[in-house]
Specification:
The protein has 76 residues and is an alpha+beta fold. 29% of the residues lie in helices and 26% in strands. It has one domain. The protein has a 4-stranded antiparallel sheet with strand order 1-2-3-4, with no helix packed on it. A hairpin with a 5-residue loop joins strand 2 and strand 3. It is globular.
């Protein structure tokens, strides 16, 4: 398990919630809940935080598409 420095943890933010991250083993966990109401988890690979959105998340692939869909629903 790689321990990230306090300075690095103070700098990093969750890409989804923009909240600070805390380290728990080989993961970083957001301090605010994500879209599903649960903290967002990111893996640490070989001492490097991987702050990528999950591949199965369609909003992560194209956030503009989600906004466009939302606008179409409210403005036919």
């Amino acid at each position: 398990m790689a321990n990230l420095t306090a300075d690095l943890l103070d700098t990093l933010r969750c890409p989804q919630t923009h909240s600070p991250l805390k380290q728990a083993g080989d993961e970083l966990i957001s301090t605010a809940p994500g879209p599903d109401g649960q903290p967002v988890r990111y893996r640490i690979e070989e001492g490097i935080p991987v702050l990528l959105m999950p591949a199965g998340d369609p909003a992560a692939a194209n956030p503009a598409a989600e906004e466009s869909t939302r606008n179409e629903e409210t403005h036919p």
